[in-house]
Amino acid sequence: KAALVTGATGAIGLAICEELLKEGITNLAVLDLHDEEPQSVENMRKEFPKSAIEYFKVDVTSDEELKQCYESFTNKVKYLDVVVNCAGIFNEKDYKNVLAVNLGGVIGSTLLAIDYMRADADKGRGGIVLNISSIAGLNTYAGMPIYSATKHGVVAFTRAVSHEREELGIKFLVLCPTATDSVLLDRICSKEYLFINSLDGIAVKSMLTVQSPCDVGKAAVQIMRDADNGDTWIIRNSELTKASLPKAIS
């Protein structure tokens, strides 16, 4: 089977890639912004020599770059089975870029995933789209209104897309991690990137219990396997909990 992951060399994205490979993914597209292929990609090739792993430099805010990547990858693998949209940034002082990456990138990639995976068209045979949101997509945090808005948007968009579209043969899911050890968390805990008049970053970090990216990677694979279409799940310190949300409206 073939999978495509955006934001794939960040802490959470990389952990998800590794778990997908452990589950038997034989073709993996690793998407990120680095000009040169990161060493972590070659490390995965060595650890999983039976899988074909290809790195794509892609800006998820560019519809053209995303389209070219999807086209190139699917030409090689024929069918795309799994898409994980994990690309995300944090900077409350650069709202346009945060909106473009965290929400626009997820929407753009999901729409392409539908185009290439839908079972009611020639290109696809169905599959799974997992969009990575955040606990900030379910709760409200005064220090990160812009980031929270994008992550709420990911939840709402994914749940709406999943509703009453069984003919696509695609299972749409959302995973909302709590604080996870990553560069993004370092930014969240830095006053330089927080919203105006927010708590000091050190004070923020002191209130957090930080989980491992591996916890998130394992949770991602588990819900892809077991969860129902349209579900939103929270991963907190290795424990998965289904979010209780109102039903989508037709």
UniProtKB/TrEMBL annotation:
Gene3D superfamilies: NAD(P)-binding Rossmann-like Domain (3.40.50.720). One of its GO terms (molecular function) is oxidoreductase activity, acting on the CH-OH group of donors, NAD or NADP as acceptor. Keywords: Oxidoreductase. Pfam families: adh_short. It comes from the Eukaryota. It comes from Nyssomyia neivai. InterPro entries: NAD(P)-bd_dom_sf, Sc_DH/Rdtase_CS, SDR_fam. One of its GO terms (cellular component) is cytoplasm. The keyword Amino-acid biosynthesis does not apply. The lineage of its organism: Eukaryota, Metazoa, Ecdysozoa, Arthropoda, Hexapoda. This is Putative 15-hydroxyprostaglandin dehydrogenase.
